[in-house]
Design goal:
One of its GO terms (biological process) is potassium ion import across plasma membrane. By secondary structure, this protein is of the alpha+beta class. It folds into two domains: about 110 residues, Helix Hairpins, CATH 1.10.287.70; about 200 residues, G protein-activated inward rectifier potassium channel 1 (Immunoglobulin-like, Sandwich). The chain has nine helices and 17 strands. The chain starts with a helix and ends with a helix. The relative contact order is 0.10.
């Protein structure tokens, strides 16, 4: 029990360290901190108040929503209290029986607050009604009505926009937790699976990737986050994908690919992060959204392929089994991209480890390309 608990704690610490070190999390959030930002730049967030509030969490939005109404009600209640005080309407001023108040039945701070709430929310007057005897009270009534309308319109727009943010649509588009490297159509490919959980299509889908790693230039300059373009394809191309069912995106590992110099026994020793992007427009809302995820070397499985999840029933209906979405199966795969292009090289059998049992002599790369099958 102690060993298992210690292992759980160790695994948790490792996952936490990996989550902190990666630039893009699995759900697409950018894990980056901004330091030494000048106050003048921070003031720009207030100038762009609409976007700033939209990016806040719902808890903060509801707090600001409630606070804005309470503050405006109380602010104007103090103004109504001052008008009543100036006219001698308050109860402790002992107005005579024939006294004409500015607002009927407003004789204290509590009643002024209730009248302020009623005026701003336009829920209808009852026993507290303004009279035409005080011009300053009429002006305050107009100002509070306009102010209340602006506040309600602002928060109504905020709530509607937060409910319809495109990033919420991105939650229903899933990438596979792992990427795989295996032969495909006569080439060694890195493959990623993506699925749309809704039946509504994503129009104009475009997929691409960026490989992030630290590089040193010939001049000795260290580039901390060097970005290398990674092209992903499907059988129909890479633009305007027909995203009606789960797709397998693949990147051909050729001599121009940064994965060409990697092998099964050196992949886990690399330090890089592969970020995959999917840009599309939802056909229901016409909102553009971007979905992204990332893969680090430990999340790339060499010598595996994705298990087929699309079948067709007897009546001709296409079925997608999402329970097998993350399932991978081992396939006979070259030890490296260089081996794939050689006539005599070694294959890597992922059913074994990276020792000699996992290597088998390959007489012809052509035979492998034609005969790679799932185990």
């Amino acid at each position: 029990m102690t060993r298992s608990l210690a292992q759980l704690v160790r695994d948790y610490l490792v996952e936490r360290r990996i989550h902190r070190n990666r630039l893009v999390t699995k759900d697409g959030h950018c894990n980056i901190e901004y330091g030494h930002v000048r106050y003048s730049n921070r003031f720009a967030y207030l100038l762009d108040l609409w976007t700033t509030i939209l990016e806040l969490r719902w808890s903060f939005v509801m707090f600001l929503f409630t606070a804005s109404f309470l503050f405006s009600w109380f602010f104007f209640s103090v103004a109504w209290y001052w008008i009543a005080y100036s006219n001698g309407d308050l109860w402790w001023q002992y107005p005579p029986a024939d006294h004409n108040p500015c607002v009927i039945n407003v004789y204290g701070l509590t009643t002024a607050f209730l009248y302020s709430l009623t005026t701003q929310m336009t829920i209808g007057y009852s026993i507290r009604v303004i009279t035409p005897l005080c011009p300053d009270a009429i002006i305050l009534l107009v100002i509070q009505t306009i102010t209340g309308t602006i506040i309600q319109s602002f928060w109504c727009g905020i709530v509607i926009c937060k409910f319809s943010l495109p990033k919420k649509r991105a939650k229903t588009i899933n990438f596979s937790e792992t990427a795989v490297i295996s032969p495909k159509d006569g080439a060694l490919c890195l493959q990623v699976r993506v699925a749309n959980l809704r039946k509504t299509l994503m129009v104009g889908s475009n997929v691409y990737g960026k490989l992030l790693r630290t590089t040193i230039t010939p001049e000795g300059e260290t580039i901390i986050m060097d970005q290398i373009k990674i092209d992903f394809l499907v059988d129909a191309g890479k633009d305007n994908l027909f995203f009606a069912c789960p797709l397998t995106l693949y990147h051909v590992i050729d001599k121009t690919s940064p994965f060409f110099e990697m092998a099964v026994d050196t992949l886990q020793q690399q330090e890089f992060e592969l970020v995959v992007f999917l840009d599309a427009t939802d056909e229901s809302t016409n909102f553009f959204c971007q979905v992204r995820t990332s893969y680090i070397p430990r999340e790339i499985m060499w010598g595996y392929d994705f298990f087929p999840i699309i079948t067709r029933s007897k009546d001709g209906t296409y079925c997608v089994d999402f329970s097998e979405f993350a399932r991978v199966v081992p396939v006979l795969t070259p030890h490296c991209a260089y081996c794939f292009n050689n006539e005599t090289a070694h294959n890597y059998d992922s059913r074994y480890s990276t020792d000699d049992k996992g290597l088998s002599c390959r007489k012809s790369s052509v035979n492998l390309r034609r005969s790679h099958v799932n185990f």
